[in-house]
Amino acid sequence: MNNKMRPDHVLIAGGGIGGLTLALTLHQIGVQCTVFEGVRELKPLGVGINLQPNAVRELEDLGITEDEMNRVGIPAREWALVGLNGREIYSEPRGKLAGYNWHQYAVHRGAFHMMLFRTVIERLGPDAVRLDHKVTGYRQEANGGVTALIETSGGEQIEESGTLLFGADGIHSNVRAQMHPDQPPIHWGGTIMWRGTARGVPIRSGSSFVGLGTSRHRVVIYPISHPDADGLADINWIAEQTYDTDHDWTRSGWFRPVELSEFAHEFDGFVYDWLDLPALLAKSDVAYENPMIDRDPLPTWVDGAVALIGDAAHPMYPTGSNGASQAVMDARMIGRIMLDRGVSREALAVFDEEFCGPIGQVAMRNRGAGPFGLLNMVDERCGGKFENIDDVISPAERSAFMLAYQQAAGFAKDRLNDAPRTIPAGAKVAKVVA
User: Fold this and answer.
1) Number of H helices, E strands in the chain
2) Do 259 and 287 meet the contact criterion of CB atoms below 8 Å apart?
3) Which helix (H) or strand (E) segment is 220 a member of?
4) d(CA 319, CA 341)
């Protein structure tokens, strides 16, 4: 089957956070698009993620309100690292409390994803997202356009043509595999993550992101809902253990349901006067196992009329809490560049030149523990146990470490607050060129 589209139509492979944000962005600037998603039904999968102020700003500019965000998450008030002995290493306010003009949000990934999906359908129409349409590859056309090769679960082969194709199809991207057939295999650094949610009383500020433990053995906890009348919220937890060479990470799959008995004993010692982690884990309805994986940075995200975004372009460890945020930023930067360069191969080349190298370096920072690198430093210097953190690592060194990460990841406060809108209000692409 060959269904030719108008030459001013953008094709998007993948209906995740990056693909849906790109669809909303293209609609905002007057560019028609269609999203092709392989699953037959979108479901609210996943647990907690964080959206940094730079991404929240872009969502606000897309007309997604604080009320809508508050229905899928909660503004984060604090980011903190705590040593294995329960003593604080570093803390800082987040979002508006830190002086940003926008919140940082801790959200339920699935609820946020479904909100984006509903918004796309409401604004672009019911045919804007075609489910059960998996993009398996592409073909560059002599006229400068591109054809997406699509397969349904029933085995039907479909071809759809447009001006550009964006691969937003995740870490196992078919678009990436064709663009870079000799890419190295998925990289695993030795860490397994177990994730889940449980009802509990939020600690510290009431909306704190807390990383606790050492570089090889830690837990991250934060609420992803507002507390109810009894003071209970949905607490997202991520328990992490780093292994050497005796663990078969390939059997973990992605969000493989597991019994608590398979791993909870690894964290029996995480009991303090302000947190009883074993008791929190025991309240969880379900737990999932994930290997902490990424891919080596690519030399380019672009092949002619095809570009990669999100995890297809730069899958990264979740240590920096900015994987989803970067997918949002990819989409918005593409929109900005199209306002200047049109819906064109030239726009893709500019996107690639500006962002491929720098974002690849952010991914490498995350592989090196990202902002959790402070736990590494403390672990190396004192084994994660101390009386006074200033005797281990000075306040100036801690602050400088965090600022360097924020600058690299694109959400340093002053730079973000002073920056003009990525896409001016009401701006439209003036012309579409091949």
Assistant:
1) 11, 21
2) yes
3) strand 217-223
4) 35
Q: Hey, which bits of 224-282 come out as E strands?
A: 233-242, 256-258
Q: What is the C-alpha to C-alpha distance for residues 11 and 341, in angstroms, rounded to an integer?
A: 18
Backbone angles phi, psi at 317, to 5 degrees: -55, 145
3-class SS letters over 372-388: HHHHHHHHHHHCCCCCC
For 350-379, write each residue's pLDDT tens digit: 999 999 999 988 877 766 656 777 888 888
Contacts of 1 (CB under 8 A, 6+ apart): 156, 157, 158, 159
Q: Average of pLDDT values for 156-181?
A: 96
What pLDDT is recorded for position 6?
47
Distance of CA 433 to the CA centre of its chain: 31
Q: What would the two tokens of residue 362 be?
A: 């952010």
Q: Provide CB contacts within 8 A for 279, sequence distance 6+.
A: none
Question: Between β-strands 233-242 and 157-162, what pairing exists: parallel, antiparallel or unpaired?
Answer: unpaired
Average pLDDT over residues 70-75: 96
Per-residue pLDDT averaged across 310-326, rounded? 84
* Nearest CA among 110, 115, 273 for reference residue 195: 110
Using an 8 Å Cβ cutoff, are 224 and 321 in contact? no
The whole-angstrom separation of Cα 318 and Cα 369 is 9
Its pTM stands at: 0.92
287 in Cβ contact with 326 (< 8 Å)? no
Q: Which two tokens stand for residue 232?
A: 């209970």
CB 335 within 8 A of CB 29: yes
Compute the mean pLDDT over every residue in the chain, rounded to the nearest whole number.
90
Alpha carbon distance 195, 256 (integer Å): 10
pLDDT(240) > 50:
yes
Q: What percent of the chain has pLDDT over 70?
A: 92
Percent helix, strand and coil across the chain, each rounded to 5? Answer: 35, 25, 40
25: nearest Cα among 308, 329, 341: 329
